[in-house]
């Protein structure tokens, strides 16, 4: 089959690779009908992720049709329309039983090489092998657009999990650091959960416009404090979601949160340590919580919200491309010219 | 001053009554600038509430300006713009300390005679005495329209409390029995809190249209089951909010909720007992929870939501009248020709 | 194999029945080393449960050793020591994904005939077939006594779920209606979760003594109100757990709960309706919640509590018998001479 | 009156100071019958707290009898027996309304000079002026020993708040860094809330013995990891409570918590920043939350727990002294020869 393959720093190409096969009774093979390029795909693209070697098939967001199932798969049959999760989890271990699938003892992430568990080829391809299919896959609900469902497999789940991890309450004022796809989804999720106001901070005007079109107030990072002060009688944000990664945005996030407030960080942190403002955190009784998306736990609810139209994540799609044009889309993405790219196989 | 006075069954009139005076150091006197007629005002109007005798000043939703304060009042000064709560509570007893102000040991409700505690004249008047002013009143936030704030003093708080009492979660499918003002507010509150769908059931077409205009699906009561089944793979509503009162609507509510689901009843129950379907409740692990609005506990959050425009309760206003025209509005209300009437003193 | 079989009203006998066999790839067969007689076993014994026909193998609490597994079982191997759940659930449906396994679309209860789903022979036997073994079974943790673990498979889980369903908070005063095994477990669970006081009401002195020995205050039902009033400044219990079943105890439970409090009913309700005191419930904003135990959801936590010794359910064991003596134990149980009987196969 | 006064680094003395007087209508004056020396009193003693100048009356834990009230005080009368809180809060501002009294806009701490708000003389004295008495004071419940109640005014509340802030769930394994008074209280609180095991780490054998006598497992700090690994199948603690302060213990706390787990830090942090292990926190989805005790919010529940005897904090009392002997007790405390000293005025 054809697939998008990491070919070295800043290089991806569409190559012929072996078709996936059932290698475990719990596997399913799906024909990918729709996948996506995610901001986190740029980390391997930029060669920032140890464990992603040339030849790795990329991509981890996908909707498709089941074409083969192992004999241990109970919930799915050939021809079922499904969505998945950006990672595989067993569904049975101590972590999975708690709903903490991302910490599953046999977790593996699609399209990240061996960075987050055993190697699993990615979803920017014609076909995909899905381990633990009964846990990882989910039926596409009647009436749910595939383009909305593909967001549920990762990026919308991540935004929603961030809001949930913050114990965001109705009436809260929220700040989101970063207007990339995860930041946009966090903004939408917080609005759906009853935020009184969401302030999205991003240096790019195009992303600020996108956030504003989706109901947020949007500002340059340097203006965030003043806007939040105005909204909160100078207390600061009840909740700050850090959706960029790295030390700078995390520091900004900590500076914007009010006393007793919570910073949730979903952006990637590569540095070993961060100089956390601990005296201020002590005085202000702050919380700093990290979270990674977990579509498996939250998708039943998210699918209802996208099916009924309460959430429409497709408003952030900037391009729809065929598999052959994915390399060009990566290049544009790396230049900040894209927020979300859908890859349409059919 | 002039005030709306209960004058016997189905009779209200505007009469001259004594001006209120400070009778306790914690009292404030406010000049009422805006009040409202609430569906529950029809209970005394219909002579259904023991304790409401002729001569009782009616009304319990109000926004105003402070014109006098007792020497024990710390948070308010003359000329402050304020909203209140439909009942007074001390702020200090075991119940108030828990946030259960409606059960306060010295609770008294405005405009209900002695039905819910000591007699307090109502707010459909030129002036109002507010006991425990530091607890009962709240500053009108900058930017918050008075017409929205008046909803926070009772009916929007009741709708919100219903959603909260149900532990409604994002993605839930909610049914609301009744499209009166409380039902409309419950619908809005559930949507603001992330319901995937809200189905409002009411026999009146005009109320169904109002609910639909505010984002709900609306149906005749007899059609509710079919619509909910369609939305939930035949499970029924995750949450049902009963906002009419009496046995019939409560029975319907219990019939619409799914297994493990919750019915929250905010409608008035006058009968001593109700034949609760206990075998079904046991098999389906149902919850039935009663709740009364508590604006004191929830208004900080609600005011942020109405100030930012996330919630706009004014869309259900069907009339705006001067004090002199309140009697006519009661008559129309009793004929189901009104949903929410604002009484504008200025 | 030999098994305890329902032989008609008030008759059980030990009979030779066919050995269970693997009939589905997800099945496991366990050699039962320890089972128990539960108060709910008396319902079929008294012929109160439609669907339990003569010939039904009884029993639903069990610990054992795996002796065979279907090819779809991943978490267990022959010789593993395991405990189970009193019912089987698929682990994959909408209900199971939420942690509401008791409502599983393919739920079946061991030893209840066809009363709660498809017929599953019971655990008071030498061997047991366990469907959906990966979901229903659980490894016996190192250091966990089998006699404690057998409680986790039903009755302790039920007591714990009752406390959880009540949202019992540290410092609460709890009343438990009934000092049978479930009531005793509810008492222990509430104490473990931080109740300030638990009052167990039972007409039998022996059960009151047992409750007292396990840390509760215990009273005759008629004295409960006075004791609770004394503990709560006359407010009543924050939480009442009804662990008997039927209308009388439920009515008592509703009479003991304070305003804003919660009644959780885990006792069986056979009548279609119950005259719920709805005017009082409205005035006092009461909650009435039904719950059935769900060992699958809560056992990871319970096993830690029994392994560390924080909870010791074995203090309520009144007899330990061999399989041959189970009929006599049923007879004593029906005469209220037993609270908990363990059936030791080895 | 006589009072314990900070007299310079490592020096306290009992001096004659002016009697407190009502200076605001919401003030009460209490005759202190019982106060205590807290570990945090050693911070001013060691001259570590800017804002504590010589002449400052020390102490912030107290039980007493009301001897005078301002005319705005409603809940208390002369001769009432009361306990207080280690800090004063208004009860009316945005923070107080949320239950976040420690962040009150007019917060002031007793006995800390101007370190945490306006100067308030401390409680190690014959009399104490208590501002906002209706909010700060609380009646001593019938049957509640004064010696237990004095713990509720600070140190037990702090331990309880730590457990609460961690969202500690029944069955959790908890590690507590530090066996001082707060650590001991956190250990007790976590046990009362259903921890399966609490591991207290302290270098002092005497504190480990005290923790063990109160139900914890206790270890030298270097052994904590091994003990926790043994309890948790090598996952680490579900919750870690840091009750020492400073960077070292916080670093240890972060090293002991499992993935998805929570560190709650209640120890004082004087340094501006702390090198938080952010890559590990990202990978493990950790939470770090700071908290300060808030007796005002939690004491209703704690008083029930100490009155019923579920919690007995007095087991950690190492000395009971008269006011005149307080200086000697400070010296012993500074040498780690005391854990909790009660100061008995009568």
What coarse outline of chain A follows from CA principal-axis ratios?
A: globular
Q: How many H/I helical runs of chain A?
A: 12
Distance between the termini of chain A: 14 Å
Report the oligomer.
homotetramer
Which secondary-structure class do the elements of chain A indicate?
A: alpha/beta
Main β sheet profile of chain A: 7 strands, mixed
Chain pair with largest interface = A-D, 37 and 37 residues
Instruction: Give me the count of strands of chain A.
Output: 18
Helix content of chain A: 25-40%
- Percent strand of chain A: 15-25%
Radius of gyration of chain A: 20 Å
- The residue-averaged pLDDT of chain A reads 96
Order of helices and strands of chain A: EEEHEEEHEEHEHHEHEHEHEHEEHEHEHE
Low-confidence runs of at least 5 consecutive residues of chain A: none
Description of the molecule:
The structure is a homotetramer of 346-residue chains. The first copy, chain A, is an alpha/beta fold and 346 residues long. The first copy, chain A, has twelve helices and 18 strands. Chain A has helices at residues 42-45, 94-98, 133-136, 146-152, 155-165, 181-192, 205-213, 224-231, 247-256, 278-284, 295-307, 326-334; strands spanning 2-6, 12-16, 28-37, 62-69, 81-83, 87-88, 108-109, 127-130, 138-139, 173-177, 197-201, 217-219, 237-242, 257-265, 274-276, 287-290, 319-321, 341-344. In chain A, strands 3, 4, 5, 8, 9, 17 and 18 form a seven-stranded mixed beta sheet that branches. A six-stranded parallel beta sheet of chain A has the order 12-11-10-13-14-16, with helices on both faces. In chain A, α9 (247-256) links the parallel β13 (237-242) and β14. In chain A, α5 packs across α11. Chain A is globular and about 60 Å long. The first copy, chain A, starts with a strand and ends with a strand. The model of chain A has no long low-confidence stretch (mean pLDDT 96). At the A-D interface, α2, β14, β15, α10 and β16 of A face α2, β14, β15, α10 and β16 of D.
């Amino acid at each position: 089959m054809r697939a998008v393959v990491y070919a070295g720093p800043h290089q991806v190409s569409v190559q012929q690779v072996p078709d996936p096969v059932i290698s475990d009774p719990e596997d399913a093979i799906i024909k990918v009908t729709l996948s996506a390029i995610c901001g986190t795909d740029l980390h391997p693209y930029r060669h920032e992720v140890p464990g992603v070697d040339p030849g790795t098939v990329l991509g981890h967001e996908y909707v498709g049709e089941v074409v083969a199932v192992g004999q241990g798969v109970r919930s799915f049959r050939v021809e079922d329309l499904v969505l998945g999760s950006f990672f595989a989890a067993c569904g049975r271990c101590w972590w999975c039983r708690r709903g903490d699938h991302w910490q599953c003892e046999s977790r593996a992430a699609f399209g990240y090489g061996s960075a987050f568990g055993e190697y699993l080829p990615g979803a920017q391809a014609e076909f995909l092998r899905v381990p633990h299919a009964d846990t990882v896959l989910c039926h596409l609900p009647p009436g749910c657009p595939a383009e909305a469902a593909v967001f549920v497999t990762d990026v919308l789940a991540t935004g929603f999990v961030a809001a949930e991890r913050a114990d965001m309450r109705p009436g809260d004022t929220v700040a989101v650091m970063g207007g990339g796809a995860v930041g946009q989804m966090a903004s939408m999720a917080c609005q759906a959960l009853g935020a009184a106001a969401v302030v999205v901070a991003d240096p790019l005007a195009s992303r600020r416009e996108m956030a504003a079109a989706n109901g947020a107030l949007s500002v340059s990072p340097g203006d965030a404090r003043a806007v939040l002060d105005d909204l909160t009688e100078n207390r600061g944000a009840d909740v700050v979601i850090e959706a960029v990664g790295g030390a700078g945005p995390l520091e900004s996030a900590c500076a914007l949160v009010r006393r007793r407030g919570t910073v949730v960080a979903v952006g990637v942190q590569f540095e070993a340590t961060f100089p956390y403002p601990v005296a201020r955190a002590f005085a202000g009784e702050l919380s700093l919580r990290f979270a990674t998306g977990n579509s498996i736990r939250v998708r039943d609810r998210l699918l209802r919200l996208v099916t009924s139209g309460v959430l429409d994540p497709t408003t952030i799609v900037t391009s729809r491309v065929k598999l052959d044009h994915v390399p060009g889309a990566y290049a544009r993405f790396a230049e900040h010219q894209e927020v979300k790219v859908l890859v349409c196989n059919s």
